[in-house]
Amino acid sequence: MIVVTGATGHLGKAIIKHLLQRLPSDQIVASVRDPAKASALGAQGFEIRAGDFADARSLKAAFAGAEQILIVSADKLGDEALRLHRTEIEAAREAGVGRILYTSHMGARAGSPFAPADQHAGTEADLAASGLAYTSLRHGFYAESCLHMIGDGIRTGELRVPEDGPVSWTSRDDLAEADAAILAEMGKWDGITPPLTASRAVTMAEIATLASEVMGREVRHVTVPDAEWSKAKIAAGMPAIYTEMLLGTFRASRRGDFAATDPALETLLGRPPRTFREVLTASGS
């Protein structure tokens, strides 16, 4: 039996969708904080269990009898994220889970200027020290996150961003499909995976060119100083903590933290991963 946490989120729902193509529904359990919001999953024949990342007792009950659990990383920052993940790891140990799978990041690195990458490195260290079998899924940077971050610039025709470096932006649904494939073959992928990425890394200047071609109108790329970009974001209403996190994306990309590409994702999918152009075209941005 496999338990998928965060099953009502974008990634969790997609993983379950792809798992259904490989396993019967009675082998899949959806763990959610609020079961009332998981009625659509329940209608598909899944068992729904209440599991709150901050409540060790509920997690232990949610994980009972599981051969594997998939921890979809918490949408939190800093020490809070690390604490929540540690609670899940300990609950898995107490429930006798055979293997933990965790959705990490290709840029996971202690001290990364991109705060979530530092957090992922911390959770990977906790998994390694847990004594449990684990697989850390080094996801490529979600292409959908990029579109959320720069969508306004694409729409207005002026992509004003800090200095950047190449990033192998990767379709979230491709990653969900790969996660399902790894879950369905327990133990085949042990420890930290290779980067699960699209086949090509692109810069913001290249994205502006792609957007111009896809949209049929010019999208200009303009590089602005970090401080100017941050000031504009905060003035537009973005909380300073999130502005700093997003700025960390650009700072880490300059170091090459997100430039890697690897054939592992294509191998898992049995086809080429979606390109950024394809994700952009499908988004209608």
TrEMBL record:
CDD domains: TMR_SDR_a. Residues 2-252 form the NmrA-like domain. InterPro entries: NAD(P)-bd_dom_sf (IPR036291), NmrA-like (IPR008030), NmrA-type_oxidoreductase (IPR052718). It holds the Pfam family NmrA. SUPFAM superfamilies: NAD(P)-binding Rossmann-fold domains (SSF51735). It comes from the Bacteria. This is NmrA family transcriptional regulator.
